[in-house]
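User: Could you check the structure of this?
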Amino acid sequence: MKICFLHHTYPGIGGTETVTNLLACKFRERGWDVSVLAWNKPAETMNADLPVVYLPDRANINTHINSEFIYSYLSDHNVDCLINQGPFWVPTKNARRIKSVIISSLHYAPSYKIDNQREAITQAFKQKSTTVMHFLKSTIRFVFKDYFAKRDFHTIYKSGLDNTVRNSDVFTVLCPDYVTDLQKIMGGAYDNVIAIENGLKLEEHQDIEREKTLVYIGRLSKWDKRIDRLLKIWKTVQHDHPDWSLEILGDGPEKENLENLAKKLKLSNYHFRGFVNIKDYLPKASVLAMTSSSEGFPMVILEAANYGVVPIAYNISSGIAHLIQDNVTGFLIQPFDNRDYVKKLSMIMSDNALRLRIGDNAKDMVRSYDLDRIADRWVELISDRIKSKN
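Assistant: Sure, the predicted structure tokens are below.
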């Protein structure tokens, strides 16, 4: 069996790249041949365990040149299944010519583009206007931001996503509720959309004494992750919990702005650690804090839960609610109620017995996402689709 993954950037440290690496490992254990097609090389040099071929047109992924290149690669290498990890429209343009099974996977919430556009409209409104016309335009868009965010999605993105879904043999989303969410957003029904959650390689580890540490793990980006909210929350709780520290694990385009904000807020007991091995921090951490505006099915919740770290996040998507059962496996906060976030976070930080109870529940929950079980579902899906297509 020959499998090829298509990526925007590879190799990398993002959640989608992690999913690919985990599945590829399980496919190889079955003797399958696995390769990667990618549009971009990462900014930082990384070792790739999988063979990678880069698309020729780096200016735009959705071009005829790249579409034909993908078609030729799949045909020349007799690839049985292409897993489109964007999902990108470009490989599905040749769907009727391609003999390979095409599985396109949505690695974020179906509402992601709308959520991001809504956030962009809000931030644009907060910027100082240079002209009266700019002020009026940004104000109107802000007042009716739900309408404009949805309109922008339908104008810019809907057609490409709809073609991707319809031209794929299977289109996967990250949890069952996303099947319904996708149909509502797109305004139509699809018969090829299914839910397959991401899996995690569960590792045995010894429990060690936990430190009073709050961790953020992920990309330091502006519109979606909103780490600025976390810094402002930390500003509120730090004085009541001087024995606690905040560890920010990750890097990204907002790092300098966030560091400047932390200084402006006069924060204490915090560190920006950059790209690190999270396994050096999670065994000792107590709480995972997320303040995102948009999330799909965050692997970091599973990774933290595996170590009994208590997650707290805004209830912004079906994926978050699928992973966190409020007051059982973590804590969900109504978006974007910072006052309640501070209240719940302070409660968690003050109650060691509560952290232990929730952490143990989280460890039990994560067993449902064991990588072997998820990989078996992928193997069954791919094998069945290849048989039916042939």
